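// run 5 | inverse folding | seed 20
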């Protein structure tokens, strides 16, 4: 069986660097807010050219922190794509705000700026105050932030980038610099993953950073026992930061390896199935390599028979999910069609050409 994501191959490549990094933390004992956290934050910001990075406990908390810092809550609307992982909509909903669902763009998996504009109008018609748009870098390609930023600026809204899958990608600039704030996740299977839960927020905005830094530790003020606002316990563990320092050091090379796998999949499959296409000048972090086909079940069955794992991200758009169907949504025909037609193939930097060929042969057999 080919692994869908091969974390063991990465670990072998890193040799004993992870173990040594973890041993250093065990030795100094600063498990919470130890020196590796700030070191990693500096390296992460430098990697993408963002002014600031703030480590936190998960990608979900990385979405909650900026929304909370902006004071978003009951009566406010946050525009989110219907075709994404649940955390994108969960974050505003947790704060009492109303997620308003908009559609994916035809030919791309990401939020359609025209549909987002319609969702802003729908929110106002429902008596809500639109406050923010969350663009999502689904499967690794950054959303169309140039268009979303223009829309957000015109409407006076915040633009939050959900780069949980897209950190390492580029589209008119590097992921991490494309919204007023960018959230990312270090869940193990993400392009840049740790060995547990973790996340980060990137921003150019020093004032936002200061509020999020307080929110990350219970809303502390300058006196640690005078808490000045309602906050969270949303820190990044020192051990995870130490692991991430080692993984970030090889991340640029891993992105190139992902590019090579994606290019080869594209070359060997594009004559039989719809493969992902990148806009000119854009780069995907290739969190997933996702096909669109009305013969998904046949592809999945052929792959399964050949020992090739596949996955469906995501089978139900958020506005159709039980816990979210009561929130407002503009028509989302593209999201609904994609949910029935997408299938993701094994994708990681250490996927050998022999294994790629096995995947390709299985997919082609499923489509034959
Ligand atoms: C994984 C993911 C998240 C949440 O990240 P966690 O670290 O699991 O909390 C949010 N948004 C998207 C698009 C994701 O893929």
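// decoded
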């Amino acid at each position: 069986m080919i692994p869908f994501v091969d974390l063991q191959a990465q670990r072998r490549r890193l040799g004993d660097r992870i173990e040594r990094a973890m041993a250093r933390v065990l030795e100094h004992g600063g498990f919470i807010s130890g020196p590796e956290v700030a070191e990693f934050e500096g390296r992460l910001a430098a990697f993408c050219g963002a002014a600031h990075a703030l480590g936190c406990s998960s990608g979900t908390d990385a979405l909650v922190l900026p929304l909370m810092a902006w004071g978003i809550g009951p009566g406010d609307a946050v525009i989110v794509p219907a075709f994404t992982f649940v955390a994108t909509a969960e974050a505003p909903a947790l704060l009492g705000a109303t997620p308003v669902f908009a559609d994916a763009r035809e030919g791309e998996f990401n939020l359609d700026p025209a549909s987002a504009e319609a969702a802003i109008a729908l929110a106002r018609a429902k008596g809500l105050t639109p406050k923010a748009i969350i663009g999502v870098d689904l499967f690794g390609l950054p959303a169309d932030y140039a268009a979303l930023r223009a829309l957000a600026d015109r409407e006076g809204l915040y633009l939050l980038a959900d780069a949980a899958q897209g950190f390492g990608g580029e589209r008119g600039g590097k992921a991490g610099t494309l919204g007023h704030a960018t959230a990312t996740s270090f869940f193990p299977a993400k392009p840049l993953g740790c060995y547990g839960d973790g996340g980060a927020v990137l921003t150019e905005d020093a004032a936002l950073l200061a509020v999020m830094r307080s929110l990350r530790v219970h809303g502390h003020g300058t006196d640690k026992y005078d808490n000045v606002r309602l906050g969270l316990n949303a820190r990044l563990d020192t051990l995870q930061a130490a692991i991430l320092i080692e993984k970030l050091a090889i991340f640029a090379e891993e992105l190139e390896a992902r590019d090579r796998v994606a290019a080869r999949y594209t070359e060997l499959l594009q004559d039989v199935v719809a493969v992902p296409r990148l806009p000119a000048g854009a780069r995907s972090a290739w969190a997933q390599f996702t096909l669109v086909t009305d013969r998904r079940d046949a592809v999945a069955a052929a792959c399964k028979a050949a020992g090739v794992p596949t996955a469906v991200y995501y089978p139900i758009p958020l506005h159709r999910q039980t816990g979210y169907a009561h929130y407002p949504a503009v028509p989302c025909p593209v999201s609904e069609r994609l949910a029935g037609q997408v299938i993701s193939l094994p994708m990681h930097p250490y996927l050998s050409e022999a294994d790629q060929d096995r995947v390709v042969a299985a997919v082609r057999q499923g489509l034959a």
